[in-house]
Amino acid sequence: xxxxxxxxxxxxxxxxxxxxxxxxxxxxxxxxxxxxxxxxxxxxxxxxxxxxxxxxxxxxxxxxxxxxxxxxxxxxxxxxxxxxxxxxxxxxxxxxxxxxxxxxxxxxxxxxxxxxxxxxxxxxxxxxxxxxxxxxxxxxxxxxxxxxxxxxxxxxxxxxxxxxxxxxxxxxxxxxxxxxxxxxxxxxxxxxxxxxxxxxxxxxx
Length: 205
Prior knowledge:
- The chain is an alpha/beta fold.
- The protein has one domain: TIM Barrel (Alpha-Beta Barrel), CATH 3.20.20.
- Helix content is 47%, strand content 16%.
- The chain contains 8 helices and 5 strands; from the N terminus they run H-E-H-H-E-H-E-H-E-H-H-E-H.
- A 5-stranded parallel sheet has the order 1-2-3-4-5.
- Helix 3 runs parallel beside helix 4 and helix 4 (84-94) runs parallel beside helix 5.
- The protein is globular.
- The termini are far apart.
């Protein structure tokens, strides 16, 4: 697929109106550093083994078999995959994804920031979105995810990526490139009132 505005519009229409899927949710790994109370497959997470994961070669074959608009990556914790940037690139080049979302608990700040930079370098036209999950304020969030300090790590990651996003906007303005990058908090506040939810979002910023 030729990566320019016209080629991307044609790919969008062809994928959208095709009989195949245009949206894929990929669980990149079952490995995770958290043990969240809401996890729907905690047994797989507890028994996760990197040797059981689909390899990059496997995922390239999947990417070759579909024509996609949107790829959403979850886990486990996706950023535990050392080849995550290569996985994204495979789907970008082979299945033509235009939009990519990654959901993360935000614990591995430096790894996340470096991976995002690498994805932007490899896939400069990809619309990239990172979602950091926050369930409550500090102590309650840590208890919910069963990882001490994960709230502060998530907020630190959110701030770092928000800064990256602002720098990307300046870069887009200078180069007139269509690449975009978003970062935001995915607040799943189940046990807090609406007022606390608003405060959580404000505090995360």
